[in-house]
Design brief:
Largest sheet: 11 strands, mixed, barrel
Order of helices and strands: HEEEEEEEEEEE
Number of helices: 1
Distance between the termini: 55 Å
Strand content: over 45%
Shape: globular
CATH superfamily: Autotransporter beta-domain
Length: 235
């Protein structure tokens, strides 16, 4: 794939969400780190703390997540995850949340192009503390596609990513609820660590109070070495 075709692909995907109009706009900054611990070539666990800030320099979300991934095929990887998060809404109101997720990742490489697909189901329990106490259950299905390109003779890896959310929560209409489009760059610092920078646009769907969110993100990723198999001595 030449650079002109790649640029056209990035632009067309980005325009899918840019052309969607919203009455309200928010701006956020996301930052975090990711530590991947491989226990073998087939199994790994990833820990990911994350902090999200609003344009008013206020904490929007604080997240702690752990994810386990099993490689059953060179392109198929089932995944389970647990997330604890604390987030804020109106002044004086905050929420604690827990999220369990299960899904599968698949990827394929075509020359310098890598395509990744994520299918996930999430079950969330949200505890509200404000003018009382309540627990809310939410369920959602997500699918995301990411396309990464390895530029020749550079370390830069530009990518574009799109994700759609489908709401399966009790007492709600089953419908698409949110869409995200993200474009950015991954810069490997060495063979074990990298920095990821991105810009993201998110739109709420099927709501009487539409909201568009612009996000700038910066993340640091580090992968520990894969342990070598222990040799067995035969007497």
């Amino acid at each position: 794939m030449n650079r002109n075709k790649l640029a056209l692909l990035f632009a067309s995907t980005f325009l899918l969400i840019v052309t969607h109009a919203s009455s309200q706009v928010a701006r956020t900054l996301w930052s975090g780190a990711e530590l991947q611990i491989p226990y073998s070539k087939a199994f790994s666990v990833t820990f990911s703390p994350e902090l999200r800030l609003t344009d008013k320099k206020r904490i929007d979300d604080f997240i702690l997540e752990a994810e386990a991934q099993l490689r059953i095929h060179k392109i198929l990887r089932p995944t389970i995850s647990y997330r604890y998060y604390r987030f804020y809404d109106d002044p004086g109101e905050y929420f604690n949340g827990q999220r369990l997720g299960a899904g599968i990742n698949s990827s394929v490489e075509l020359g310098r192009l890598k395509m990744t697909n994520r299918l996930f189901y999430f079950h969330r329990l949200i505890t509200r503390y404000a003018y009382g106490y309540s627990i809310e259950t939410r369920r959602e299905f997500r699918e995301g596609i990411k396309i990464t390109y390895n530029i020749r003779r550079t370390k830069l890896k530009p990518f574009v990513q799109a994700e759609i959310y489908y709401d399966l929560s009790p007492n709600r209409n089953y419908e698409f609820s949110k869409i995200r489009v993200r474009t950015g760059l991954e810069y490997p610092l060495n063979k074990r660590s990298s920095i990821v920078l991105f810009f993201q646009i998110q739109d709420k769907l099927n709501t009487s109070n539409p909201l568009r969110t612009y996000t700038v993100g910066i993340f640091y990723n580090y992968k520990l070495p894969t342990p070598k198999p222990k040799s067995v001595d035969i007497e």
